[in-house]
Amino acid sequence: PACMVDLATLTGAIIIALAHEHAGVFSMTDEIADMLISSGESVNEGVWRMPLTKTHLEMIKSDIADMKNMGPGRAGGSSTAAAYLKRFVDDKMPWAHLDIAGTAWAYKDTPTCPKGGSGYGVRLLDQFVRDNYEGDA
C-alpha cells in the first residue's frame, strides 16, 4: 500500500528506551511497521516497534489550543511526540515515524559506517522501497 514514512531525530527519550542500537518506529498501521522492521533487519539498521495508541493522542489534547506539543511531564515522551506528528497526517494515509535520535550518530567505527554522522535510514528506506514497491512486490 502507498504510505508516508518520516524520519527525525525527534526525542532524547527514544535514547533512554532503545540506547543507540535501534530507531523507534511508531505507526498505527501494523503492516507498515512490520515492513520497516523487516527492511531494517535486511540492512543491519535496527528498528524497534514502539507504542502509539489513542491514549497517546489524548495526552496531547489541550484545553486552550488545538493541541499541546508534548504530553504531561516526561511520561511517554517519544510516543507523545509521535502522536504530535500524527496529527498532521491524514487518517486515510498509512504512516510511520522513525525516531532516529539514538541512531543518527555512530560513536565508533562499524563495518558499514565510520564514526560520525551515520546516515541512518538511507539504506533502510532504499531497502523498504526495493522490498515493497519495485519489481514484483
Low-confidence stretches: none
Radius of gyration: 15 Å
- Tell me, what's the shape? globular
User: What does the average pLDDT come to?
Assistant: 92
Number of strands: 6
Fraction of residues in β-strands: 15-25%
The DSSP helix count reads 5
Structural class: alpha/beta
Spatial strand sequence of the major β-sheet: 1-4-2-3
What's the SSE pattern? EHEHEHHEEEH
Largest sheet: 4 strands, mixed
Distance between the termini: 10 Å
Helix content: 25-40%
3D architecture notes:
The structure is a single chain. The protein contains five helices and six strands. It is an alpha/beta fold. The strands form two sheets. The chain has a four-stranded mixed beta sheet with strand order 1-4-2-3, with helices on both faces. The longest helix is centred in the first third of the chain and has 13 residues, at 30-42. The mean pLDDT is 92.
Key descriptive features of the protein:
single chain; 137 residues; alpha/beta; 4-stranded mixed beta sheet; two-stranded antiparallel ribbon; 5 helices; 6 strands; 34% helix; globular
Short description:
It is built from five helices and six strands, in the order βαβαβααβββα.
Write the layout of secondary structure elements.
Elements: E1 4-8, H1 13-18, E2 23-27, H2 30-42, E3 47-49, H3 54-59, H4 77-86, E4 95-99, E5 105-106, E6 116-117, H5 122-133
Helix pairs in contact: 2-5
